[in-house]
Amino acid sequence: MRLANTKGGVLMKGKSLYAALLVAATPGMWGLSAAEAGTLDDIKARGELICGVLGNSEPFGYEDPGNRQVVGYEIDLCKDLAGTMDVTPTIKVIAPQARIPELQQGRVDLLAALISYTNERAEQVDFSNTYLVDSFRCMVKKDSGITGLDGLADKRISVQKGGLIEAALRSQFPNATVLSYDDVSERFVAFQQGKAAATCDRATLLRALQIRAKNEATTTILPEALNMMQKAGFAVRKGDKDFVDYLNQFLATYESSGKGQALFDRWVGASSNYDLSRDFKMGDDIASQ
């Protein structure tokens, strides 16, 4: 993801674009009996899709301070997915470190919670194709004298607990002190109070923190990306191939219909405060390098 000026519309409403998907992407399409349909059958039987999401990761999933509702990129994606099944979406906020356990224990039907693909995670859950690609960067104070990542080599760095970035930073900066916090606000406050020289996360999340704190005059996001570019997709319970197939067709249709670009523009692109452009397509293979 890179900074650029983009043009685009707002997120379209309605189910008309999904008529073909709803008819085609049924268990029968994949040669599955009702007994084999797994999670898809359960969702349709109860009339509800339970999405596990993050609640503190603006603009992907966060609490709107105006109405206290959880909103964002992944929230709208879940709601549109539920629309193709003609069921009610239920949004369940979970902690980053509880994402996979909540899924494995059956408390949610899927994760739409900035869960990035890794070979290790793919042994625990199955992934759909990609719906988001993002780089990871670090924010520092302008008066810190740090102008590049090499300046973090022996510094204190705050991150959110439970993400891939914690281990990546320890590997990239073995002499740095990585401070992990349970909550985004806690690690950002630690950075603001000078307890850490930098805070690192997805580029879009750092930009959201910067905008919300109104501290663009005193902080800067370093231009270099960390040694990790992460692809996020839906995560489902291991072995649920029919559900993965459904999700992959949903994402392919979402992209080809123009709704993928509209969703991106609304939350991250031209219609948002971030004005970023995207260099990925929804439905791209999540495991490819």
UniProtKB/TrEMBL annotation:
Short name of any one Pfam family annotated for the protein: SBP_bac_3
Positions of the Solute-binding protein family 3/N-terminal domain: 48-271
GO annotations of cellular component type: extracellular region; outer membrane-bounded periplasmic space
Superkingdom: Bacteria
InterPro entries: Bact_solute-bind_prot3, Solute-binding_3/MltF_N
Family: Belongs to the bacterial solute-binding protein 3 family.
Record PANTHER family: ABC TRANSPORTER GLUTAMINE-BINDING PROTEIN GLNH, AMINO ACID ABC TRANSPORTER PERMEASE
UniProt protein name: Amino acid ABC transporter substrate-binding protein, PAAT family
